[in-house]
Amino acid sequence: MRLIEIRLLEGPNVYRLEPVVKIELAIGRRRTFYGERRPGRHALVRLGATVPAKTWPDPIAAIVAWVRRLRTDHGDGLGGIAVHRSSDPGHWIVTFPWMGAERAQSIAEAALALAERDVSPSRTARLTGHQERAVARWSARIEEARTSLKMWFAVDTLEYLRRGGRIGAASAWLGSALKIKPILTLDKEITPIERVRTGSKAVARLLEYGEQRHADGADGWVVQHIQAPEEAQRMVDATREIMGRDPVFVSEVGPVIGAHVGPGLLGIGGIPLSVLE
Fold first, then answer.
1. FRET pair for 219, CA 20 to 30 Å: which of 37, 60, 88, 136?
2. Structural domain of residue 50, as residue ranges?
């Protein structure tokens, strides 16, 4: 079994309407990548279609079991894991929903590492001392990533918060008239922490949060947005001067969160790079 890639896909995508982690693996001899293709066989693979569990190879079943175990242990739930076939011979794809990028990446890497070491994901299985230490180490890394990442967002419009019932119609109308931009944070749920007037003050406040996070030791930083690439780039340029390094990533928030906050959102976050190593 060989890892092709781990990729975090925003939604909608060919597999789900929601953001998913895509783990693509190759099983079989390497020459199948370059040898004779069998279009008659692989043309039957429908992009995004799931494969029944009874047909999964053992390595794929082990990875799925570990993803399920780690997601349950860290509060992401049991459901949403699916297996797909690629049109490439011997390629298999495992997908599952994600919210926090660092935690999702850590769960995917941990599932692969533990499956390759033939560690049983069963809670009742008898593990060797080395296996128990491996499980504990990966669990600690996932939990550290979850607790270390701090994100702040500035909402450009109050209309979507009103539609979701988070604020009343009168508050939305008054806030729009006064150009109020709520600052939200995302941990286990979206939580408002502050309100400022005008978009420029909201951006300045986000930069202050980023500088504060940097002072606390979070040398890795990220910028996210919703349909605001130019504004996000300006924030990247301003934050780079503060942080002294490029962002870990710049990405657009998917529809799971976007449906609650609407277009124009800008966000900044920080995490110690040591957590990602």
1. 136
2. 2-145
Shared domain for 104 and 170, answered yes or no, is no
Report the distance separating Cα 166 and Cα 152, nearest Å. Answer: 17
Q: Is 175 in the same domain as 269? A: yes
In angstroms and rounded to an integer, the radius of gyration of the C-alpha atoms of the chain is 21
Per-residue pLDDT tens digits for 81-107: 999 887 666 788 899 988 777 778 888
Number of domains in the chain: 2
The enclosing domain of 170 has a CATH number of 3.30.1180.10
pLDDT band at 32 (very low <50, low <70, confident <90, very high): very low
Position 10 confidence tier, pLDDT thresholds 50, 70, 90: confident
Query: Is-contact 194 183, C-beta < 8 A?
Result: yes
Examine residue 89 and say whether the peptide bond preceding it is cis (omega within 30 degrees of 0).
no
Q: Hunting for tokens 């918060």 — which residue is that?
A: 161
**Whole-angstrom Cα distance, residue 64 to residue 197?**
47
Paired sense of beta strands 266-271 and 220-225, if any: antiparallel
Q: pLDDT of 144-190, one tens digit each?
A: 777 777 888 888 776 666 665 555 544 544 445 446 677 877 766 66
67 and 134 both lie in a single domain: yes
Alpha-carbon dihedral angle through residues 16, 21, 27, 32, given to the nearest 10 degrees: 70
